[in-house]
Amino acid sequence: MNLLKEKFEELKSQSLEYTTEQKRAVIALSLVAIFIAGVLFLSSRGEAVETPAIKVIESAPSKMLLVHVAGEVKRPGVYPVIDGSRVVDAISAAGGARKGVDLSVINLARKVVDGEQIYLGVKPEKKKVGSKVFSGTVYINRASISQFDSLSGIGPVLAKRIVDYRSANGPFVDIAELQKVPGIGMKTFERIKSRLSL
């Protein structure tokens, strides 16, 4: 390296006139020489370092969920969201909440599930005890908890007891057998028997 500097200084001190092209060539050769010297210097030092292999992980395509966003949003409707999305993402897909909506009543961080319906700013109707009216027939050997719950005087707890009793003891033979379920007395049975069938 010092040898190059000495030669360069010696040539410089001579009173020779160089053309611009010659000056560029000398500079280019000097840079190439410095680069080669640097590479040789770095490669001769220390031990070789083994670089770990880089693992390429291919991600599976993201599963899409459909969520129905309704209520006080700018564009209510059904929107596709990526699996793992939160309620806030679904609301954003629907254009965001309308002005003045209280977002503190909903958990914006909850993950959404496929087929879910999210109501924003809409208060669900409250059930009033004794105000349920069901005019259809309830088939006691097939009815679900919600179907029993729709009968006047039968709440969700009693409806579950009926279904549990049926599961444990088998199908009812007679509608009067419903009175064996704890919580269903004569008065309750008399009130609902006209709507019951096997």
Can you characterise this structure?
This protein has 198 residues and is α/β, with parallel strands linked by helices. It folds into 3 domains: 43 residues; 57 residues; 60 residues, Photosystem II 12 kDa extrinsic protein (DNA polymerase, domain 1, Orthogonal Bundle). It has 6 helices and 5 strands. It has a 3-stranded mixed beta sheet with strand order 2-1-3, covered by helices on one side. The chain has a two-stranded parallel sheet with strand order 4-5. The longest helix has 25 residues. It is rod-shaped and about 125 Å long. The chain starts with a helix and ends with a strand.
Coarse structural class: alpha/beta
Percent helix, as a range, is: 25-40%
| Overall structural domain count | 3
Q: List low-pLDDT spans.
A: 122-134
Distance between the termini: 105 Å
Order of strands, main sheet, comes to 2-1-3
* CATH class category label of the largest domain: Mainly Alpha
Number of helices: 6
Question: Which CATH-level-2 architecture of the largest domain?
Answer: Orthogonal Bundle
Q: In what range is the share of β-strand residues? A: 5-15%
Q: Report on the biggest sheet.
A: 3 strands, mixed
What is the H/E order? HHEEHEEHHHE
**So what's the overall shape?**
rod-shaped
Indicate the radius of gyration in whole angstroms: 41 Å
Quote the average pLDDT. 80
CATH topology of the largest domain: DNA polymerase, domain 1
- How many β-strands, per DSSP? 5
The CATH superfamily of the largest domain bears the name Photosystem II 12 kDa extrinsic protein
